[in-house]
Hints:
By secondary structure, the chain is α+β, with helices and mostly antiparallel strands. It is 62% helix and 11% strand. The protein has 11 helices and 4 strands, in the order ααααααααβαββαβα. Strands 2-3-1-4 form a 4-stranded antiparallel β-sheet, with helices on one face. The longest helix is centred in the N-terminal third of the chain and has 32 residues, at 2-33. The radius of gyration is 25 Å and the shape is elongated.
Amino acid sequence: MYIKASKKSQNILEYSMVVLGTLVMGFAFSVFLEPNDISTGGFSALAMIINTLFENVGVTGIPTSAIYLILNIGLYLFALKTLGKRFAIKSLVGIISFSLGMEIFSLIHFNITYELLISAVFGGAIMGVGVGLVVRFGGSTGGSDMIASILKHKRRNASLGSFILAVDLSIILLSLFVFPNGFELLPYTIVALLFCMYITDFVNEGYKEVRAYNIITTKPEELSKAIMEHLSRGCSCTTTKGMHTNTEKNVVLVLISKYQKSQLRAIIREIDPDAFVYVTRVGEVMGVWSTPEEIAKTAK
């Protein structure tokens, strides 16, 4: 009973955050990006391009949000077989709520006018917050992500990231020729895109960057004890053999935040200055990461 309730609460949280993220995206798009013809790629930018083309031939009054929704629903139906059930539902929620967000904030007249650079920075950063929330909680807003999923299904050995990048770059390139002063807007598009990418990563991965330190040492006990006492981090130890010296040593593995690296280096220099250390960046940590209670028990 507890597990079901917990799972239900988790699902509610995930869908709520996906909707919140898409509303934030809709605000950034309708208030900062679309009024200034600044593109950050994706189907929202493609919808802007199509709307501009319609206006050029005298067809006006079509909301960009409606074009976005039609593009994505068509693609969604085509891609449905390649998507898992859970991801498919979240994608549909993301597509609809982003479209609604675009429409809602376009109807609310904020009367905000900023210089292009400010609009690019604010628009890209706020869009990044929204995208980061959507991605962090397992959602999608369709567009280039979905195209990439379809292509990946057809070509399993290809890179998903390269597909997304290719689609987004193609849309941005097209915007240069369609938007008035498209080439003059290119620097602002790049600024918005960079801010969007950086903030997306920041929101999705968090500010705590974790490093894995692999310390090849002859003093694993002393080193581990000092790390647990001074850094409150647990350690793992394995045995390795140096083929050049033909001697056995120990590898102490510890995960620390980037703010603790100077302390760890000082500990290593003091206890085993001859230790060989190599460091890798950790993308994600799951499970309990050395609670103080566990460290205290181990240290005793």
